[in-house]
Amino acid sequence: MKGKSQQGYLWVYNRPKSDVLFEWRVSRARAGPEEFLKNFRGKLQTDGYGAYESLAKQRSDLTLVGCWAHVRRGFHEALAETKLAAWFVGQIGQLYAVEKKLRAQKAGPALRAAMRAWQSQPLLNRLHRAMELIRRKTLPQGLLGRAIDYTLKRWEALTQFITDGFLEIDNNLVENSIRPSALGKRNWMFIGHPEAGERSAVIYTLLGSCRRHAINPFHYLKDLFTRLPAALITEIRQFTPRAWAGTKTGQFCLANGGVNG
């Protein structure tokens, strides 16, 4: 409407070990991910945003996977209210210590699943028992009570990573992709027009994917703008940052995997 501003949103999707995609929407309603993910089947890792949870409930071909970084954040905030939260923060820290060891070993999916079953599952069992016990003694509207309720409500999604070594413990790949745009948003708060928002999403997608694949964005964009005008429509896929990085290193392969949102 003339003379008034309207909010817009960047929805971010990620395929592990592949590119990042930013999508521009003028709403945070479920219609956004519902349309984008209509042809996707598999495991969807997200934060606790209700739009994703509502979508997953109505689709048997989507399995929701939770994010322990968001769980940890809630208990960390509860430290200001009670020392009891420190125990939970420590236990979650041990879950992350297992993941750190797996990354250091460059473990594959099978080893990740085995190590998690051996070391992480007992931690989860202990966490669940403690939450159930303390929940009865904690004010539900307190910071600790809210952190516990948030976690228990999403327990099935939060434990998916144990048996599937392809999954991550959290959604931080997407969070890290969002961070550069979030840190600078005060400098580009106004888009001007919804179509400009869509073009911004394309630029964010290219630059975010370059960052993911450790590509120099100047070299990538220079090559892209040089060769793309003469390319055939059937050749477009080779210009994605992941494909471009692969051809430059001789290690190109087609992407496969789940989607984070």
Describe it.
Helix content is 55%, strand content 8%. The protein is mainly alpha-helical. The protein folds into two domains: 1-66 and 171-261, no CATH class; 68-159, no CATH class. Residues 249-261 have low confidence and may be disordered.
- Percent strand equals 5-15%
Number of separate structural domains: 2
- What distance lies between the first and last C-alpha atoms, to the nearest angstrom? 30 Å
The major beta sheet can be summarized as: 3 strands, parallel
Structural class comes to: mainly alpha
Q: For the CA atoms, what is the radius of gyration?
A: 21 Å
User: What gross morphology would you assign?
Assistant: globular
SSE sequence, one letter per element: EEHEHEHHHHHHHHHHE
Mean pLDDT: 86
The poorly predicted ranges are 249-261
- The total of beta strands comes to 5
Query: What level of helicity do the residues show?
Result: 40-55%
How many DSSP helices? 12
Spatially, the strands of the biggest sheet line up as 4-3-5
